[in-house]
Amino acid sequence: MTEPSRLERTLSQLSDQPGVYMMLGEDGRILYIGKAVSLRNRVRSYFQDSAAHPYRTLRMVQRVVDVRTIVVTNEIEALILEANLIKRHQPPFNVRLRDDKRFPYLKVTSERFPRVVFTRVVKDDGGRYFGPYTNAAGLRELIDLIRIVFPLRTCREPIDGKRKRPCLQYHIKRCLAPCVGYQSEDDYDKLVDEVNLFLEGHYDPLIERLQGEMSAAAEHYNFEAAARLRDRIIAVRRTIEAQKVVWRSRIDVDLMAFARAQGQACVQVFMVRDGKLLGQEYFILEGAGEQSDAELFSQFLKQFYTARTGNYGMNGAFEAEIDASPLALRAARDQQAPVAVKARARRRAGFESAIPKEIQVEAMPEDASVIEAWLTEIKAQRVRIVVPQRGERREYLALVKKNAEQNLRAFLVHQEATEHASASALTELASGLDLPEPPHRIECYDISNIQGTNSVASMVVFIEGRPKKSDYRHFNIQAVEGPNDFASMQETLRRRLRYLRQDADRPPVADGDAATRAIEAQARKRERFHEKPDLLLIDGGKGQLNAVAEVMRELDMWGIPVAGLAKENEWLYLPGNSEPIVLPPNSAGLHLVMRIRDEAHRFAIAHHRSKRGKAMTKSVLDTLAGVGPVRKKRLLAAFGSVRAIRNASVDEIAAVKGMTPALASQVKEALSR
């Protein structure tokens, strides 16, 4: 009797509880993520001989070598977890938002005196999030408008009553200086509430509130405050006039329609609040080519509203379980920590306003009842998903669909032009460097330092002529002292290429053992530099290139093409060739390598500045064992400076919160040396 495979053993041990399952391929990559009321029944149904799957599902099942599962309490938790895992891992057989990690949001922070900020990361941290927006420039303009109309603070300075005078923002009427007590916390909270009403699209209550405040200010002869309120009312009314009334009744609804072409799909969303069109965004979906309309809307609704509600209701321990890293565990702990009552109320209100009472779609999702229950629980009101069949609702949805078709056409034209330009540039580059074929993966390296201090190196990666920022890496130069760019470049390349050397020295795996191959592939994937580049590009001329050539000989890596780009004339150099390769000034290939080199330069300088800034703010306290960031902050707040701590007695130091007599003695002894 043959021993059962790893997949067969996993299938026989599946739980009958609700949860999320992840299909794994031979290379360890997650192929598909799904949810189930019963993990046992759902997962096993994929591998039954009698199952009639669509072609796309059959292709996926043929590649599965193992299944991972996460058990949860109920189907709603499974729904939220599924959406988060799809967003994180981007499985190829799932419908997913294209570049959804890049979508910007407007955030009203959960601090004691909240700020309005631009962010691309949504967390359940007590803040209120508005978005996602697909136009970052438009969002920044909106934030600028809010800061003009509603003078909230923009600084991160703690409001502790220690500041003696207001900053410039107060004098230019962009802040009312709560830091020095010119504005009370209650008045500041009223301003925050007005911002939230403005962003939610509830303009009538906002205008009534502002008019009441203006009248009260005028009655008390506070004409300067009344004038500010008048200007705020005018700005809000201008915003209202720019918005189109699309509904006769004052309804809150999200309308969603999609368009398909060339294996791509675009979902258009119109957000209507109080009968007015508050905003519209479109999202390009990947992996939607063979999916049914119902499945497409199911996946989109889950990912769209999970992002808008900051993963509300998701147990942070799930994410920690998946990552199994200290940072993930700390994030989970932070999300489960108690939140101030005021911040918690704002967060809840933010999630409620992000969800309308009605969602209109073109096709009813199969799990619509679960999605409705999930959204209803967050909003604390009944949320309905409907498919309009006739009348006014159907006409509006047809208008949304026309916008989806137009945006998809524009996206496809742009995508085709970009791909053509990248292909042309890579072909020209391959021809100029005499490469056998256009390079798929290009890695570029640069060194940054000031007189040899805080020396760092950068590695940027371009795939098919486009940056892949998740593969970018920084190197802190460790073994080189002084301003020696050649030796620094050699250290960087040794540290990067040694991983390829390890792969080359690794013994082969038996062909017949798919499970072992999967484990081996996962181990290789954990190595940070497992992918072999098709071209190494060095920022520098002959000197840097010769230094790299020594490393290539040392590691026997001559199979990887390498070139140096000298900035003075933008000439390319190859090892062993004294004559430069001069590409025409208007060459697409030259423009590509210049762009890659500039990106490596920017990335190196950014890390160098960060490292230099940390070094400049380092104090003696950072070198003391047992004194971490919190204790350091408390000591400096109590005494004002390191000198004052040095002059203080052991008892005075021990009196600071978090300090002990033994630790205070160690601090006193260390500072007295």
Automatic annotation (TrEMBL):
The protein's job, in short, is: The UvrABC repair system catalyzes the recognition and processing of DNA lesions. UvrC both incises the 5' and 3' sides of the lesion. The N-terminal half is responsible for the 3' incision and the C-terminal half is responsible for the 5' incision.
Gene3D superfamilies from the entry? Answer: 5' to 3' exonuclease, C-terminal subdomain (1.10.150.20), GIY-YIG endonuclease (3.40.1440.10), UVR domain (4.10.860.10), UvrC, RNAse H endonuclease domain (3.30.420.340)
According to UniProt, the name of this protein is UvrABC system protein C
What is the taxonomic lineage of the source species? Bacteria, Bacillati, Vulcanimicrobiota, Vulcanimicrobiia, Vulcanimicrobiales
Give the family from UniProt.
Belongs to the UvrC family.
GIY-YIG domain mapped to chain residues: 16-95
Q: GO molecular-function annotation terms?
A: DNA binding; excinuclease ABC activity
User: What superkingdom heads the lineage?
Assistant: Bacteria
Domain (UVR) ranges: 204-239
Keywords (alphabetical) are: Cytoplasm, DNA damage, DNA excision, DNA repair, Excision nuclease, SOS response
Tell me the HAMAP family matching this sequence. Answer: UvrC
- Where is the protein situated, by its record's location annotation? Cytoplasm
Main location, first listed in the record: cytoplasm
